[in-house]
Design goal:
Layout: H1 3-14, H2 29-44, E1 52-59, E2 64-72, E3 75-82, E4 87-94, H3 112-126, E5 131-135, E6 149-158, E7 166-172, E8 177-183, H4 202-210, E9 215-221, E10 228-234, E11 240-243, E12 249-251, H5 252-260, H6 282-285, H7 290-297, H8 305-313, E13 324-332, E14 344-346, E15 349-351, E16 364-374, E17 377-386, E18 392-398, H9 410-424, H10 426-429, E19 432-438, E20 446-455, E21 458-470, E22 476-482, H11 498-506, E23 514-521, H12 530-534, E24 539-547, E25 555-560, E26 566-569, H13 588-596, H14 614-623, H15 635-644, H16 661-671, H17 675-678, H18 696-707, H19 727-738
Helix pairs in contact: 1-7, 2-7, 4-11, 13-19, 14-15, 14-19, 16-18, 16-19
Length: 740
């Protein structure tokens, strides 16, 4: 039965007519889409509230990825999933009114901890057996009051150990839901994921890994006294890893080099067990909404991979002989709302928008990529076809090429460079020798040389001359000088050995058992990977347990050649607002909740019973707007903020002034733009026991503070307008406003 008839039948069934729906033939695009859609809906809890649905397969060399999209007038959902319905990415958009921030300043609708609970729950649903989401350091950093979303990310552990797979989750504050998710997946690698067993240890692996570190002993300028000292500086070298199964040290860079041969960055995924789909029955079709069935019907009649390939090869002018089809992806034409019926031309045949409403008539475009391996590289073609008719719609591509021979040798180029520099900077050149040189390439057509100063037999690269020479005619294409003739150099005595430097440097890295992305020779894996081989791949990444030099404990500058100590610069960590002087204080909870959003003071002290100065209060108020003024040198910027916000005039600046409680209330309400209302004469009254002592200029502010629930008075109900304000009172006053 055609899918349009099936759709009609299911719609009737949905309306309660109870008509039976015959099964469809297995293996069609529609049947596969049914299975994927059901699995995704079950995982994410997608409701039948959407008015439009599309599902599109992207066929890669050895597997499939499905792009699913649901839309409604005020909501849309996009999902990428595997053939089995495993969710790899999700994006949810909902039209919600923006939260009012100014004159409605408030705490966010959820805290970071509450958002993490939602992220944890979502990850529990989308991760599969053997997978665990481990958040990166820093995920719990504070956010300001204007936060609209919380972002989390980290590593997906497989079988209890780290892997190269990462994830990212975003939680919308206003919507109270996960609105974005993306993850890497083992299906992006060939082969099975092996058990995390090992025959060696992390320390033994560290020792092996240190052997192949590459260092250069050079002079560098020491920041402390500007003297140039000798240091072992790491240089680019091959990456290695220790195979956990054998304990063998393996050159990973060489494997990656083999992987890159014949590859130009095509987005390839690997085989999933995809075609063994169950027969489409009344039962599983009834689990889908009419909107989803209509979206599935849009794929009726699309050509499969072989059909598209045959349609493309009809065009002999394209020279596809010898090319292998690499990837096929599909794109379903979207319907645009609000368009009146008008002729639409498809394949030179006119039809109206009303006629085009039939899902099976929806246009689907196919994108094909081809590859041909040659003696000098890989040639590629990209074709665009009508997925239902096979009509050719577009073509692009390129052929492999070889570098053209240059006319000048490197020695000849260097001679010209030296002759030029001897005329331009003879004194500096006399102190230098060739430090680095680069051969001319086809694209650059130039040789590059760096001449660096040499002292006591060691280079000082900070003093250098650089030059580029045309490989065609020997012309000087560029030259520059960076030279300080007054540098003092330390003596080259009492130096540690290279092996000692390597061991010291290796100690700065984390080394642990983890899954690593390791290129593997494809002809070892059998027939399943032959599409990759035909597309020009000899190697492809697999996941293997092993050891490698991981994240370094800081920014490494090398190893001191005399002391043997690593020269490190500690990474700056995200600073959070914390206090160490609040334990047991009555305002502790308010101050700590404010600090969660970086509202407060940054010097680590709340000093809750300290008297409130004008400058310190401005720091508190400005922090609610996301500013951070902490040091004395920020004073002018701090007061510029106060003037902009109408809190103070320039004539009122008095940084050390002790504020009264009345001043404290007035400055807060002025920062929130209440001054025009508060200064209306003769309309305010308040119920404080000492209301008759409140100065006339503060009466409106006192009344507003009472009406807003900011100030309730002391145990006797007094406002105490002229009493010195305390820092804890200022924090609680702001906290009450934000908590309204």
């Amino acid at each position: 039965m055609k899918i349009r008839k099936l759709l009609s039948a299911v719609l009737t069934l949905t309306l309660g007519m109870g008509l039976a729906v015959p099964a469809l033939a297995a293996g069609t695009a529609e049947e596969r889409l049914v299975k994927v859609t059901q699995a995704v809906k079950s995982t994410l809890g997608v409701e039948d509230e959407y008015e439009e649905f599309y599902g599109e397969p992207n066929e890669t060399l050895l597997g499939s990825r499905w792009s699913l999209s649901w839309t409604a007038p005020d909501k849309s959902l996009s999902v990428t999933a595997t053939e089995e319905g495993k969710v790899l990415s999700m994006s949810l958009w909902q039209n919600s009114p923006a939260a009012v921030r100014r004159n409605g300043l408030h705490f966010p609708a959820m805290t970071l901890s509450q958002a993490k609970i939602l992220a944890d729950s979502f990850l529990d649903r989308v991760l599969t057996e053997g997978e665990e989401a481990v958040y990166s350091d820093g995920w719990d950093s504070s956010a300001g009051l204007n936060v609209s979303q919380y972002s989390f990310g980290g590593t997906i552990y497989l079988n209890g150990i780290p892997s190269p797979l990462s994830f990212r989750v975003r939680v919308s504050v206003d919507q109270g839901a996960v609105t974005y998710f993306h993850r890497d997946d083992p299906s992006g690698y060939v082969g099975q994921v092996p058990a995390p067993t090992t025959v060696t240890t992390a320390e033994a692996a560290r020792a092996l890994l240190s052997e192949n570190l590459n260092f250069e002993l050079i002079y560098v300028r020491d920041k402390a006294d500007e003297k140039a000292v000798l240091r072992y500086v790491p240089r680019a070298s091959d990456d290695y890893y220790v195979d956990a199964a054998t304990g063998e040290l393996i050159n990973l860079t060489e494997l990656r080099r083999l992987l890159s041969q014949g590859e130009t960055g095509a987005d390839l995924t690997v085989k999933n067990d995809m075609m063994a789909t169950p027969e489409m029955t009344d039962s599983n079709l009834s689990q889908l909404s009419p909107t989803e069935l209509e979206g599935i019907a849009k794929l009726e009649g699309v050509l499969d991979r072989d059909g598209l390939d045959k349609a493309a090869r009809v065009w002999t002018e394209l020279g596809l002989a010898g090319f292998e089809l690499s990837t096929v992806s599909y794109r379903v034409e979207r319907e645009e709302s609000g368009i009146s019926p008008m002729p639409i031309v498809v394949n030179d045949a006119a039809r109206t928008a009303e006629e085009a409403k039939n899902p099976a008539d929806t246009r689907v475009t196919a994108y094909l990529t081809y590859a041909k391996k040659t003696g000098t590289g890989v040639s590629r073609r990209s074709l665009t076809l009508d997925a239902k008719t096979g009509e050719l719609q577009g073509l692009s591509g390129y052929n492999s090429y070889a570098d053209e021979p240059v006319k000048l040798t490197q020695a000849q180029a260097q001679a010209r460079a030296e002759a030029f520099l001897a005329k331009l900077w003879p004194d500096q050149l006399a102190k230098c020798e060739v430090y680095t040189s680069y051969d001319a390439g086809r694209l650059s057509d130039a040789y590059s040389f760096t001449f660096a100063q040499k002292v006591n037999g060691y280079f000082f690269p900070e003093n250098a001359l650089t030059v580029r020479v045309s490989a065609d005619d020997g012309a000087i294409m560029a030259a520059s000088k960076g030279f300080d003739d007054d540098v003092e150099f330390d003596e080259a005595e009492g130096l540690i050995s290279l092996d000692e430097a390597k061991a010291s440097w290796a100690s700065t890295y984390a080394v642990e058992l983890a899954y690593l992305a390791i290129p593997v020779k494809l002809d070892l894996l059998g027939a399943d990977v032959q599409p990759l081989v035909k597309a020009g791949y000899s190697y492809y990444n697999t996941l293997k347990p092993g050891y490698a030099l991981g994240e370094q404990s800081g920014w490494g500058r090398g190893v001191d050649a005399k002391t043997g100590e690593p020269v490190m610069e500690t990474r700056s960590e995200t600073q959070t607002m914390t206090y160490d002087d609040l334990s047991g204080h009555w305002a502790e909870s308010a101050l700590r909740e404010l600090a969660l959003y970086n509202v407060g003071w940054w010097d680590g002290k709340a000093d809750p019973e300290g008297k409130l100065t004008q400058a310190e209060y401005l720091k508190l108020l400005s922090s609610a707007d996301g500013y951070r003024f902490s040091a004395d040198q920020d004073a002018d910027s701090l007061y510029a903020y106060a003037y902009r916000q109408g809190i103070l005039t320039e004539g009122e600046r008095d940084e050390g002034k002790i504020l009264t409680r009345a001043d404290m209330v007035r400055m807060l309400l002025d920062s929130l733009s209440y001054q025009a209302v508060a200064n209306l004469p003769g309309i305010f009254r308040c119920d404080y026991a000492d209301a008759d002592t409140i100065p006339a200029g503060h009466m409106g502010y006192a009344a507003l503070a009472q009406a807003l629930g900011l100030v309730v008075g002391n145990e006797k109900g007094n406002y105490l307008a002229s009493a010195p304000a305390l820092r804890c009172e200022a924090a609680v006053l702001l906290w009450r406003y934000l908590s309204r």
